[in-house]
Write a structure and sequence with these properties.
Structural class: alpha/beta
Mean pLDDT: 89
Order of helices and strands: EEEEEHEHHHEE
Helix content: 10-25%
CATH architecture of the largest domain: 3-Layer(aba) Sandwich
CATH superfamily of the largest domain: Vaccinia Virus protein VP39
Largest sheet: 8 strands, mixed
Length: 185
């Protein structure tokens, strides 16, 4: 995905460390960087993190941001749909919105079928077919920050997170999968 982030940027779930998305080199020259987190306030490098609940971002008026970033946060949000409503509210028309979540997706085990068949212990299972292995999928381990509520599908990211957005792009990265979606409000 190649998208241009700029203008006034909000990160939901920002942390006061180099791991914050607000530290990305592509955001070096943006006009404004603001983060929110339940355990703020913090000041880090060239941005402030406010103490704010993403389910009701009362400190921001409608259409405040040109870019909204949210990664590794919605799975911890018991009411993530409220946060999605707030993202739509605070993002300006034409704003770039990028959301990353742990997901699940079908594993393509047939790629390694020839190699697996060479292992004597696995040969009988491989010959019967691998569909039984793909009946479930890997997901990111439970990680309590402060809780861990959800895992998402590509379909949910496309249809729920980016409903009514334009130019939606969804990618699945890593194993276990992370789903990264972006769209224009």
């Amino acid at each position: 995905m190649t998208r241009n982030a700029g203008g006034s940027v909000l990160e939901i779930g920002a942390v006061p460390s180099e791991e914050s998305l607000l530290c990305l080199p592509c955001l070096r020259t943006v006009r404004e960087k603001i983060g929110i987190n339940l355990d703020g306030p913090h000041q880090f490098r060239d941005f402030t993190i406010r103490r704010e609940n993403a389910n009701a971002m009362t400190c921001f008026p409608d259409e405040s941001f040109d870019t909204v970033l949210c990664n590794a946060t919605l799975e911890h949000d018991p009411f993530f749909w409220k946060t999605l409503e707030e993202i739509r509210r605070v993002a300006r028309k034409g704003a770039l919105v990028v959301i990353g979540v742990p997901g699940y997706t079908k594993l393509d085990l047939d790629i390694a079928k020839d190699k697996w068949e060479q292992i004597p212990l696995l040969r009988p299972f491989v010959r019967r077919g691998l569909s039984w292995l793909t009946a479930s999928t890997l997901t990111l381990q439970v990680h309590h920050y402060p809780g861990d509520c959800y895992r998402f599908s590509i379909q949910a990211v496309r249809q729920v997170f980016f409903e009514e957005f334009k130019e939606v792009e969804i990618e699945t990265l890593m194993v276990p999968p992370r789903i990264i979606g972006s769209g224009i409000r």
